[in-house]
Amino acid sequence: MKMRYIDIRSDTVTLPTQKMREAMYKAEVGDDVYEDDPTVRKLEKLAAEKVGKEAALFVPSGTFGNELALFTHTKRGDEVIVDRNSHIVLHEVGASAVIAGVQLREYISQNGIPDVDEINSLIRDEDIHYPPTTLICLENAHGIGTVVNLEIMKKIEELAHSKGVKIHLDGARIFNAACALGVDAKEIASHVDSVMFCLSKGLAAPVGSILAGTKEFISKARKGRKLMGGGMRQVGFLAAAGIVALEEMVDRLCEDHENADFLAKSLDEIDEIEVQKDRRDINMVFFRFLVKFDDKKFASHMLENGVKINPPEGGEYRFVTNKDVSRQDLEKVVEIVRKFLKKF
Ligand code: TLP
Hints:
Elements: E1 6-7, H1 18-26, H2 38-50, E2 55-59, H3 62-73, E3 79-83, H4 87-90, H5 95-100, E4 103-107, H6 116-122, E5 133-139, H7 150-162, E6 166-170, H8 174-181, H9 185-189, E7 194-198, E8 209-213, H10 215-227, H11 236-248, H12 253-268, E9 273-275, E10 284-289, H13 295-304, E11 307-308, E12 317-320, H14 327-343
Parallel strand pairs: 1-11, 3-4, 3-5, 5-6, 6-7
Antiparallel strand pairs: 2-8, 7-8, 9-10, 10-12
Bound molecules: ligand TLP.
């Protein structure tokens, strides 16, 4: 029998639900490059409504959606203001230089929270030496585990628009942010010109993300998507799962947050562990060990006991709760961590 692993590497690992599988099987499809796929159209309409934007586009991944947004908002040589610890900077293989051809100017958020004055100081005036600033990128929920409140987003919106600069939101986990802030995702997205969000993370769709914005922006992005090789044909099979994700999987995300609270508390009770308690807004738990050991040994101990984890980044581990991991699974995870520390 196939061994069942407890997979806490990410929420991207979630498997599609039975309903998604059935919807995919039955999906009515057509050639989406001709805009002929009724299921994709339905998903894009629903997705636009969910974030209160005029239009939306189905894209293959979150990285694709972010990079397409940069490519659509900017021209080669523009400057984009973005968090040093954002996914765009850290985890997109430098694509903004390759695809949009832009220069990134980084702000340094405090635990994912941007400082409005710092962003203001980074927007370029007109000078023969300077590239034009055309875009600010925000991330909410932030990949380091926090959420940005609406007051800060509003201030950045006012600043950007007073200077003719657009804002793109990496909202890969916008519905997690909405849960943590106790607001509707529409309210978060109302402060930005474009938003990318993922169907394939906590919402458990197998593939795909959404880029949303004005009709004009999305029609330009549609052509950019084709240029990037993302014009897909009978992709309604995937969109069908995305519809189920948006209709049925959004409200349960708060459960992942509660499970992460439980995991954080349980790990923090272990003497050799320090949990990053100030970065505990969503379904992620970041922590360090206060004792030194070979990280590879820890990972193989976890795997041998049926738990998949990622290696640490900058000395920090990240455990991510998701719909395929129960409270009992998390109890087991903590037990297995304790067992390692005893042995070592
Ligand atoms: N994040 C992945 C890894 O790439 C780190 C994860 O496991 O969390 N924005 C944010 C904030 C993200 O966390 C991610 C994925 C993306 C964009 C990109 O999405 P994909 O993986 O669909 O390209």
